[in-house]
Give the backbone structure.
Amino acid sequence: MGVAAVAIGLTATALLMNSVTSSRRLRLRQFWSSPAAHTDWQIRAGERCGEAPFLAPTDGYIGFVWGDSFRLARAHQGIDIFGPTGPDGLGQTPVVAAYDGYLTRLSDWQSAVIVRVPNDPLQPGRQIWTYYTHMADAKGRSFIDPAFPPGTTEKFVRAGSELGFQGNYSADPSSPTGMHLHFSIVRDDGAGRFLNELEFSNTLDPSPYLGIEVNAQRLGDGLAVCVKDAQAAQSGSPS
């Protein structure tokens, strides 16, 4: 395949992903305008989808997913879950540990924690890390639970333990993110340390861990919800 053909292919893919991302932004505005009207779009903190190993880490609508493209050659490394209290409902939507592990909060982390999972439930023998961020307000006032002050290292937490609350911290007070949790699964470097979460290749598809399709390529512009819940909503029967 020639260079021109490759460039055309990449451009077409970028346009498609931008279109999908635009659809997600529109749906997010609809959700924020009336969360109560879209309860079937939401996941709930501490709930498990089917036989998935991870619990849902917070309440809300999964607005952006793993692999979404906000600009060319930059893929989203995790999922963004927007709480039901709207973009300004700061410090009201709890965040919980998705799986048992050992929590670290680096000394300069205002809004983030990372949890070491020594034994990947889907690939035994492999170590992975679960990362939670934006748990602070726009000015950096932390919403992380006081049990995990800056400098915390290797503190054991059980699945479902409260870690803090959703926030809108972006490191730029003039440009808050909108209240949500960013959650990702980060690879280990092989020497017991987590890789840089900002690199997409250093993260894993959360779909099989959550039991929810959150891979942008497979999801398209669909809703990221627990399949059993979606089927129940369509049939009118309880999940």
Summary: The first strand starts at residue 42 and ends at 43.
